[in-house]
Specification:
Blueprint (H helix, E strand, L loop, with lengths): L1 E3 L2 E4 L3 H12 L5 E4 L15 E2 L6 H15 L1 H5 L10 E5 L5 H13 L4 E4 L1 H5 L12 E5 L3 E2 L2 H14 L3 E3 L4 E7 L2 E7 L2 E4 L3 E3 L5 H7 L7 E10 L11 E4 L4 E6 L2 E6 L18 H11 L8 E11 L6 E4 L6 E5 L5 H18 L13 H4 L10
Parallel strand pairs: 1-12, 2-3, 2-13, 3-9, 5-15, 13-20
Antiparallel strand pairs: 4-8, 5-7, 6-7, 10-11, 11-12, 14-17, 14-18, 15-16, 16-17, 19-20
Length: 382
Amino acid sequence: MTSSADAVIIGGGVIGASIAYHLARRGMRRVVVLERDRLGSGSTSKNAGGVRLQFSTEINVRLSQRSIPKLESFADEMGVDPQLHQVGYLFLITEERDVAPFERSLELWARLDVPAKRLTPREAGALVPSLVVDDVRFATICMKDGYVDPSSMLRGYVARARELGVIFREAAPVTAIERDHGRIASVRAGGESVACERAIVAAGPWSRQVGALAGVELPIDPLRRHVFITEAAPGLPAEFPLTIEFATGLYLHRESGGVLLGMADPNDRPGSFDDSVNWEFLPRVVERALARVPALEHTSIRTGWAGFYEDTPDKHPIVGAIDGVDGLFCAAGFSGHGVMHAPAAGELLAELIVDGRASLDLRSLRYSRFAEGDLAVEHNVI
């Protein structure tokens, strides 16, 4: 069976859905989204939902500055409450190696009008009951930061995109991206071939494999991340800042009546698609959480899951056209920040595709930067 579209988006997570919505809003009606499994079944459904301005590079700050106002008005525009909790991100700096990078970040935030500030250990301790700050050198906080429900965001984008004529196809893994004289000609999924002039890779951790179908090597690899949820946590308020022990990557915030605990397993390496939970890692997470917030001793772990970051070598996404294949675009490799940057990424890529240029300079996110060696690594990654 053969059909046609103006654009085919490969990947039905929040990034793909945002692109589809923004393309349709700009007048592109024949948009098809192909999802290998169920919509949002990849990284979107397993994301902790953090939203923040406190990045170390200007482009990531700019993406957040474009995205957060859209999340604040999301319910009005999209008709779905994204459950945005702007409780702040509280970064705890405990190691000397992180002092200078965060001091540079504070200078960047001041220049870009990010309402973040530096706190003393005592000031940080006053924000979270039971928080241990004996080893904290200083902290930073921005009260525009917080967390959101990724599934609600996805529902909003999909519903509004469908109203504008976008077609979403689930259980449709892409098996071929066909070219004609260096141009995108069609995308094949199962027994269907969709003729198109534009294909957009938004497949998250699977983007390297999708890019290979078009003869392109996208340096994007999966990296497993664990999340655990506790039972009710007496002794802690209903809301407190999303708190990050930066040296270990431990973070925690309120979730579903309990507390969400996340932390990277140092033994995990990029490249594996194993998303099973390593329960042997849980005691290390619990140990760090209890050392930082002893009040958690009054609760227990209720559940846990693992999902993937989609890592690039510099922890920045690829957003834009792919050199060498006319009509091929990418919005992937967000390195754990795809949900929070989905509003900006979808809008900017739609501008680039429909208008020929984006309203934010995306050169630092170009695909060719890897071959050119022009990388600026994001330091503030957990």
